[in-house]
Amino acid sequence: MKFGTISHWKQQLSSGAISPVELVQELASKIEALNPSLNAYISWDKEAALVAAASADISKPLGGIPIAIKDNICVKGQPARCSSRMLEDFVAPYNASSINNLHKNGAITFGNTNMDEFAMGSHGENSAFGATLNPNNPLHVPGGSSSGSAAAVAAGIAIAALGSDTGGSIRQPASHCGIVGIKPTYGRISRYGLVAFASSLDQIGPLSQNVQDAALMLNCLCGYDPKDSTSSKRETPDFSAEIGQSIAGIKIGVPKEYLSSGNDPAVSAALAGSIKALEELGAQIVEISLPRAEAVVSTYYIIACAEASSNLSRFDGIRYGHRTAGNTSLDNLYSRSRSEGFGAEVKRRIILGTYVLSSGFYDAYYTRAQKVRALVAQDFNNAFAQVDYIIGPSSPTAAPRLKDESLSPLQTYLADIYTIPANLAGLPAISIPYPQQSGLPIGIQLQAPHFAETGLLRVASALELALS
Ligand code: GLN
Fold first, then answer.
1. How far is ligand 1, taken at its centre, from the CA of residue 167, in Å?
2. How far is CA 181 from the centre of its chain?
3. Which of 53, 207, 243, 419 to pair with 182, CA 20 to 30 A apart?
4. What's domain 6-221's superfamily in CATH?
């Protein structure tokens, strides 16, 4: 079902078995055939990709490789709609720094992938362009918010893709679709040109078919960018340097809070199977505790909504975004433009965020959430004093069914329990698929200390190989 990894196509390109132009053509025909039923892409500009392919330098790390881009990352001359009616007509006037980095490394950016509107959601159903289906079972959601990026890679209509992860939006859809997704350390990849949802949590990262490809993409994406004030000046290592090395003696923590009875039996089984595989590889498994695990969801939803209410205020029909027709007054223009442009979930978040920031409630909610956030980070510091990495599920369940009306927004929020901590603490975390005999994919998550991606990828690839 998959289209072939980056490594595979690099080899095909360098042997001359296929040209970059032919590769784009082949991919485009697959998209044209499969996308109408899947809705993973909301648009793709074949002509622009063919022009880029004609002059692609295949000697570069991603030379001639097409990469799909989430609809909230700016590619000059292409739409960046965040799957929202609000930005229906918006065409990016410049490249995001991550896109410049991909281009510098020879990649061809090709296609805008569907997403939950403004990256708010976990199912890929909050899109003004309709839901994306899970390629493993079209009755289920692909996860979100990077729904289209994950579904496209899993369905074999993308080699790899970019996503963004504020509370799990790379790792959770990767888990639900059966692929690899990594959120790097906060600050590793520039956020310049990523439409902001919650700036202190947002990170761009790759979705790929295997760990090796994730490392390759990170090599090309990371690096200091003066245009992002939170960008890290740390040197970018070779993230694939330790892939294939032994993990004997490495200490891996299992938080007792992650062994919850609320996990699906298949998730518990996948976690147990992964722990066993790591032990067989010589890793030392240590039970640890992350005592604030229960508080992360409410903390995240207060902070993320607060930041969203501020970030999304620019979409007012004047500075940016949809403008209502036939308005009479300025107030009317603002309120009608925003009511028409935003979908229900985005409105819910803006209202929640405005509430927690309002005078009288600010200290009770926002200030307290910031304090809990610091404690969550402290829990990880304590844990990483005992162990090198942490293992757990990526999500408590497999992909829910489409249009499951029995799930309230709150229940959906609670399912982010395992992915949110890494965002609150700014840590790198990866989801890799645990092979299933039948049924929907299940993802296993590994978390690491800040800037420890190289070792994280080493453990992830060792586990990937052991499970394959
Ligand atoms: N599901 C989470 C939310 O709805 C995460 C979103 C994200 O990471 N962009 O906020």
1. 5
2. 7
3. 53
4. Amidase signature (AS) domain (3.90.1300.10)
